[in-house]
Design a protein that fits this description.
Strand content of chain A: 5-15%
CATH topology of one domain in chain A: Amidase signature (AS) enzymes
Helix content of chain A: 25-40%
Strand content of chain B: under 5%
Oligomer: heterodimer
Number of helices of chain B: 4
CATH class of one domain in chain A: Alpha Beta
Structural class of chain A: alpha/beta
CATH architecture of one domain in chain A: Alpha-Beta Complex
Number of helices of chain A: 16
Number of strands of chain A: 11
CATH class of one domain in chain B: Mainly Alpha
Largest sheet of chain B: 2 strands, antiparallel
Distance between the termini of chain B: 37 Å
Shape of chain B: flat
CATH superfamily of one domain in chain A: Amidase signature (AS) domain
Largest sheet of chain A: 11 strands, mixed
Radius of gyration of chain B: 23 Å
Number of strands of chain B: 2
Order of helices and strands of chain B: HHHHEE
Strand order of the largest sheet of chain A: 1-3-2-4-6-5-10-11-9-7-8
Structural class of chain B: mainly alpha
CATH architecture of one domain in chain B: Orthogonal Bundle
Strand order of the largest sheet of chain B: 1-2
Largest interface: A-B, 69 and 46 residues
Chain lengths: 478, 97
Amino acid sequence: MSPQTSNKPQTIVDRIRAYRQGDTLPSVVLAAYLETTRSREPEVHAYIDIFEDVASQAERADDLVKEGRFEGMPLLGIPLATKSNILIKGKRATACSKMLENYIAPYDATVIERLRKAGAIFVGSTNMDEFAMGSSTEKSYFGPTHNPHDLARVPGGTSGGSAAAVAMESVPGAIGTDTGGSVRQPASFCGIVGLKPTYGAVSRYGVIAMGSSLDQVGPLAHTVADAEILYDVIRGVDPYDSTTYPDGVYPVVDTKDTYHIGVPRDFLRKGIDPDVLARFEASLEALAKAGHTIVDISLPYMEKGLAAYYITVFAEISSNLARYDGMRYGLHVPGKDLLCDYLETRREGFGKEVRRRILLGAYVLSSGYYDAYYRKAEIVRTLMREELAAAYRDVDIIVTPTVPTPAYKIGEKEDPLSMYLGDIYTVPVNLTGVPALSVPMGTVDRDGKSLPVGIQFIGPHAGEARLFDIGKRFQGEQ
Amino acid sequence: MEISEIQHLAALARIRLTDEEAGAFAAECDSILAYVAQVKEISTGGSAAPSAGAHKNVLREDVETTEPEAYAEALLAAAPDRDGRYLRVKKILGETP
C-alpha cells in the first residue's frame, strides 16, 4: 500500500471543491505549495524555472473565484507544472538542452492555451532528459532530478521533473510528454497516475518534437479522476496539428460494469523484477475479485516492439533535430565557415545521448540499411497494430506492469542499451497509437525504502473513458 | 562499426566528433544495433507493407492562419545574428579559385 494512505495528498478535485465552497483562495493554496517547493526542491530538483509571475496569476484567479466564475473554467486556480519542452509564451523553453538554454517561446502551445483558458496557474517548467531522450531524467543539461521517495534513485523519465513535482506535492498536477513511456514510467517510479493519450487526441502544436509519429502530451496527477480532468481540458482537434482526430475516426469505446482483461503472459516471463511481478499478480487478483474476467492472451509482435521502437525513434530524431542549425534560434557556436558553424554548434549544443541517437538515426535511414531497419520496423509496427486490433475483439483492456522494475539508483544504468530495455512494456503503446494509463499498484521494499510501482491499463484507440473507469475503480478497490 | 563509419554518419548529421568520441560511440552503437537488428529476424509474411493506421493526409485551405506580423519580431529576436528583418549567416557559395 502507498505510504500516503494515512495522509492523502490534496487533489485537484479537493481544491476545486474548496474554492467553490468559498473555503479558500488560489493564492492561499499556491502559497502552501510554494512553501513545500522551497523545502523539497533543493534536494529533488524537479524544476528548471519557477515563474516570476506565479503570484500575480494566483491573484487574478482569486478575483475570478470570488466572482464565482467557475463556468467553463474547470481548472480555475489550480497550480500546474509543465515540462520544459512545452512552449509558454514569453517563458524559457529549454527542452533541458544547452541548444535551447536561452530560448524564449514566441507563442503558447495549444495545450497551454487550453489550460490557460481553463483557469490553470502555471507554476514552473520541469526537468527532463535532454529533448526527451532517456528514461531517468539523468540526461538533462541542468543535472538530474531525484526521486522524492528515495533521493538516491531516479524519478524515471523523461517527464521525471513533472512526476517528482507532483509526488513531492509542490503541485497537484503536471503535464508531460510521452514518446515511449515518458509519462507512464515516471508516474510508476514516483507513485502517481500518468496517461499517454491516443495518438492524435492531444495537439502537439508548440511541443518540441522528438518522434513525431509517437509523441503525445499527457497529464500526471495523484488520482485517476484528476488525470481525467486535465485530459478533458487538453484534448481535442487543433487546426495547427493535422494529426489530431475528430470524433468518429475511431469507434466509440464504451464503459462496462465488468471487463474482460487480457494479460500478455509471454511478455512477463523474463527480465521482470520478482517483487514487481508479485505486486502485479496481487493486482490481478484484486481485479478478479472485483468481478472482472482475467484472460491470458498472446501478443508475439508486441514482444518485439522495443527493437522496432528504437529504430523508428532514432530515424525520427535524426530528421526532427536537423532543424537545430545555429542560425535561426538557439545556440550558435561560430566556426571558420558556414559548414563549421553547423558542426560546432551541434557538437556543443547536443549532449551525448542526443548525438548518439542522431547518428543511429542517420545509420538506419542510410541507403543500404533503410529496408533492413526502418522499413522493416514500420512493417512490424503495422503488424503490431493488427495484432492488437485482433486482441481487442476478445478483451476490453490489456494490462501489464508499467515498468519491469522499481526506480533504480542514479548512475546505475550507464550503458544505454540497459536503460532502453526498461521501456519494454511502454513502447508498444506508442508504436500502435493506443492510450495507456499507469496507476500505482503498491510498493516494493529496497534498502529500507518503500518504492512505488505502477500497473499499466492499455485501451483500444480512443478508449480513454474506459481506462479512467477501470483506473478509478482499481484505485478505490486496491 | 568502424571509426570511419561513425565519422561518415557524423558528417551527414553535421556534428563534429573527435576520433576518441567516435570510438566510444562505435562500441555503444554496435551493441544497440545488435539489439535492434532483431527486427530483421521477425517473420512478417512476404506481402506485408507499412501502413499509417487510421491516419490519412489532411489538407487545409492555403490561407493565412495567423495575423500578419503576429510573431515576426519574436521569431527574428530569437536569431543569433540578424540584420533588420534578415538573419545573418556566413556566405554559402565557396571562393572561386
